[in-house]
Design a protein that fits this description.
The structure holds 2 protein chains of 2 kinds. Chain A is mostly helical. Chain A is about 75% helix and about 0% strand. Chain A has a two-stranded parallel ribbon. Chain A has a two-stranded antiparallel sheet with strand order 3-4. In chain B, strand 1 (about 95-100) and strand 2 (about 100-105) form a beta hairpin. Chain B is flat and about 55 Å long. The chains are: A mainly alpha, B mainly alpha.
């Protein structure tokens, strides 16, 4: 029994190792890791999923896992296809060690995050892994950092993903408020008992938005086609089998709670149908094989979302089967396209005409994969479409519009796949050349064998499919299996679709046209224009509201804030006068000496113009403050103040010693105004500080820390114990701020150097 | 290129580095701690670079690595309690006595060491970068 959390951390360690050094041994350990997870799908007792770690007791957030059959099918896809993808990446990197290190480490990180996503039971932990997949997929899309189109695509994907994930988080929190639990298994028990109200419908819509953007539905589908700039192993893994299925997974998990809502049905079916249609249509417009595959994936995701809109157990079973089948053939298709790309250096179908003429292994695999994609017999797609049409034509779920849209989209997809087949196989010249490293065909080959086996052996897992369907819709009243219905209507409709597809493919192939649409109306352009507009508006607002000189900017803030606080003080004139009196009563020798030095340094700071003189008086000011802190009995603060003062002076001297200062001569009037404002604000804030000091202070928190610092924190220095023990998480954040500041300065200096050279 | 400064830096920097490590380890019971120790060490680096006017180009490459090591140590202190079935960032202590001295080692100390390295890396990187302007 391996503790699963430990195993996850081990996976992170593997990613770190792969980042430092990559060789076949590392590959072996990665395969061993994922092989064990694949094995655990069939023998779940290897891993101990029940150790619940409580992350935050107050908020009741626990790191808990849920390993039911729905999760298992996703885990199988992630781990099995993952193993093949890792092997394929080894082939793809072609002994380029630097590329392999980067690809393997980030891919391993992504795979771990995806694994955590599908296994997590707590929605906050799910959100954590969701965002981790977003970040790692950004790094993978942006793999070759010099390609500006890839940078733009990566930006699009992360912007949309993060914005929608934030909305989704709000939805989760609302759901917590309604159900009082963070656990998905407990939420599923609320099936049919959470009545539609303003709050629950908002939660529903927000979570749907998060899932929809992640699964590249309309109107955000363009990020997936842009993500094709990533290396092919990444596309084979993320954009076909795992990451885009994350949104689908989430929808399946919350299906029991929201499935009766009208909002759910309308939103998901309309978005799903639109996406299906767009995917089908635009896949005919592209020449790059990867783009065509991207749009067929968009079609498949759209159809899965559409199937999730319904509450019928037949359609949900179809959804599960299609999910599995699609992952297999899509990953195989991407891998084959990658192999072709490596060997012929192009992915354009017009240039690749006729490369697949003989019965070479690659031709067989290409033929089988694209036939499966088109939905032709004997593969599972054919059977599935028949049954889906039959299920949808039953009185409970029939709708003319949706039926026609899905038929047209299937026709378009069949046309696109068959068109690709025609281009690859039929042409006058035979341009085939022997493939280098033909062992690479083994990996898509295994996937092809997988989906062939699935097509002929699905009857053995019918029970599993209906069990998963039960998890998704809750127990049905009269469970029926998809494969028990007889599909006469379905067969006719399916035949129509396939014939239509064949016809369209022939017409398009013969006429050698690639249709196109104007780029300026595409969703991608609209999105980029919106982002641009936001930046432009932000710029304009800043220039409108900010003064050009720093002193006038600060002056305005001081005057308005000061007047506001002064008016507040006027309401308690007596206490204010008492505070001022107290100020004049503090005459111990130490305080007087400190006051004298403060006065000298402040006046020196203001009178003298040269920069180094100012720095000198600033240093004196800082040192005197140190003395003040010591007299007040705060040694840690005093030490920090002293050291920070020294470092500031050193850094300023070092940075500005070569700088050229123009000392402006200011008019007497300007000096008078600035002096008045400074004195006014200084006096005001002193009085307010003294007033606050006399305010009764509730000692609960400080007493707790002082009393428990030795017993709980094992230390006598309360300040340090608070920093590194009681409030360690805050300190972590602060330290990250220091790190970010250093990185920011590095970037700015780099940019400054670049500008100076050019 | 003041000879006096260079000569005194030669001695002072040794003392200051020892002081910074001392401050780090005594921080839990007496005034001191990770931040303060790290600032003293960074002051040493600043003093050295001012006295010898060396182009701190080596620091440009080394400082980010120190920063990264510091953050990794922090993460280690973060997730170490998970291995013992505690929530992340719980304080766990290992107490033993060495002859007559009682020694307590714990995750807060590890956390402090992580802060130490991170702040050293961050501040020296800052100084090294700004020197080039």
């Amino acid at each position: 029994m391996i503790n699963f959390d430990v195993y996850l951390l081990l996976g992170l360690l593997l990613a770190a190792v792969a980042a430092i050094k990559y060789n076949k041994i590392v590959l072996f350990y990665i395969l061993l890791y994922w092989g064990l997870i694949t094995y655990s799908v069939f023998h779940p007792s290897i891993f101990d999923f029940n150790s619940v770690i409580s992350w935050s007791k107050i908020l009741a957030i626990n790191i808990s896992f849920n390993n039911d059959n729905l999760a298992k099918i996703f885990v199988f896809l992630i781990s099995a296809i993952g193993c093949l993808v890792f092997l394929y990446s080894d082939y793809y990197c072609d002994n380029n060690k630097a590329k392999a290190k980067k690809l393997f480490s980030i891919l391993q990180l992504f795979a771990i995050s995806m694994l955590g996503l599908v296994l997590s039971d707590n929605v906050i932990v799910l959100f954590l892994f969701w965002e981790l997949t977003t970040v790692t997929s950004y790094l993978l899309i942006q793999f070759s950092r010099t390609d500006s189109a890839a940078n733009q695509a990566a930006f699009n994907s992360i912007f949309l993903s993060v914005a929608s994930a934030l909305l989704m988080l709000v939805g989760f929190v609302i759901l917590y408020g309604l159900t009082n639990t963070w656990s998905l298994t407990e939420m599923a028990l609320f099936q049919k008992s959470l009545s539609p109200s303003f709050l629950s419908i908002t939660a529903c819509v927000l979570i749907i938005i998060g899932a929809i953007v992640k699964s590249a539905q309309f109107p955000t589908q363009f990020w997936l086609s842009g993500a094709m700039k990533a290396p092919t192993p990444v596309s084979a893994y993320l954009h076909s089998a795992t990451m885009v299925n994350a949104g689908i997974f989430l929808l399946a998990r919350i299906h029991p709670i929201f499935a009766d809502y009208a909002v759910w049905k309308i939103l998901l079916s309309s978005i799903g149908l639109t996406t299906m249609f767009i995917g089908g249509l635009i896949s005919l417009f592209h020449r790059d094989m990867k783009s065509i595959l991207a749009y067929t994936t968009i079609y498949a995701l759209g159809s899965m979302v559409y199937m999730l809109a319904s509450n019928s157990d037949l359609i949900i079973e179809a959804f599960v089967a299609f999910l599995f089948f699609h992952a297999l053939y899509k990953a195989a298709a991407f891998m084959l396209v990658g192999i072709i790309d490596k060997n012929y250096n192009t992915r354009d179908i017009l240039e690749l005409s006729g490369i697949a003429k003989n019965f070479a292994p690659i031709s067989i695999l290409l033929f089988l994969t694209f036939i499966a994609m088109a939905g032709l017999p004997p593969f599972f797609g054919f059977i599935l479409k028949e049954l889906i049409y039959e299920a949808k034509s039953m009185p409970a779920s029939f709708s003319l519009v949706s039926m026609s849209v899905s038929m047209i989209s299937s026709t378009l997809i069949a046309a696109a796949s068959l068109k690709m087949l025609f281009y690859l196989f039929i042409h006058k010249e035979n341009k085939q050349q022997p493939l280098s490293k033909s062992y690479s065909l083994l990996f898509p080959g295994i996937l092809v064998i997988g989906f062939i086996a699935f097509s002929f052996g699905y009857i053995y897992i019918v029970n599993l499919l209906s069990n998963i369907a039960d998890i998704i819709i809750g127990a049905a009243e009269q469970p029926r299996s998809l494969f028990d219905i007889s599909a006469s209507t379905g067969r006719i409709l399916n035949a129509f679709t396939l014939l239509g597809g064949l016809l369209a493919a022939l017409i398009l192939f013969k006429s050698k046209t690639i249709l196109s649409y104007p780029e300026k109306y595409s969703a991608k352009t609209i999105f980029e224009q919106i982002v641009n507009a936001i930046l432009v508006i932000g710029n304009k607002l800043t220039t409108m509201t900010q003064e050009k000189s720093l002193s006038s900017h600060i002056g305005i803030i001081f005057v308005s804030l000061g007047l506001f606080l002064f008016c507040l003080l006027l309401q308690q004139p007596f206490q204010a006068w008492q505070a001022l009196h107290q100020l004049l009563n503090m005459y111990s020798i130490g305080n007087m000496i400190i006051l004298a030095f403060l006065a000298i340094s402040s006046i020196g700071l203001v009178i003298f113009k040269p920069f180094l003189t100012n720095l000198f008086y600033l240093a004196i000011l800082g040192l005197v403050l140190t003395l003040f802190f010591i007299l007040q009995g705060a040694p840690d603060v005093a030490m920090t103040q002293l050291l920070v003062e020294i470092l500031i002076v050193v850094v300023l001297v070092v940075a500005l010693r070569k700088a050229d200062f123009n000392y402006i001569q200011e008019s007497k009037f300007a000096i008078f105004i600035k002096l008045t404002i400074a004195l006014f604000i200084g006096a005001l804030f002193s009085v307010i500080t003294l007033l606050l000091e006399n305010h009764p202070f509730n000692n609960v928190i400080s007493d707790y820390y002082i009393n428990n610092s030795y017993s709980l924190g094992q230390g006598m220095n309360v300040v340090n114990v608070i920093l590194v023990d009681f409030r360690a998480f805050d300190t972590f954040g602060e330290v990250l701020v220091v790190a970010t500041a250093a990185i920011g300065i590095w970037l700015l200096v780099k940019k400054f150097h670049k500008e100076r050279i050019s | 290129m003041s000879r006096i400064l260079q000569y005194s830096t030669h001695f002072l920097s040794q003392i200051m580095l020892l002081l910074s490590i001392l401050l780090l380890f005594r921080g839990h019971n007496y005034p001191g701690g990770g931040f303060i120790g790290a600032l003293v060490a960074s002051a040493t680096v600043a003093l050295y670079s001012l006295a010898y006017r060396i182009k701190t180009s080596k620091f440009d490459k080394v400082a980010p690595i120190i920063l990264a090591v510091g953050i990794l140590i922090l993460l280690l202190a973060f997730i170490a309690p998970l291995f013992y079935n505690h929530p992340p960032l719980t304080g766990m202590w290992l107490k033993f006595s060495f002859i007559t001295v009682n020694i307590k080692l714990g995750t807060p100390l590890l956390f402090d060491i992580g802060i130490y390295f991170t702040v050293i890396g961050g501040v020296t990187w800052l100084i090294a970068e700004l020197e080039d302007i």
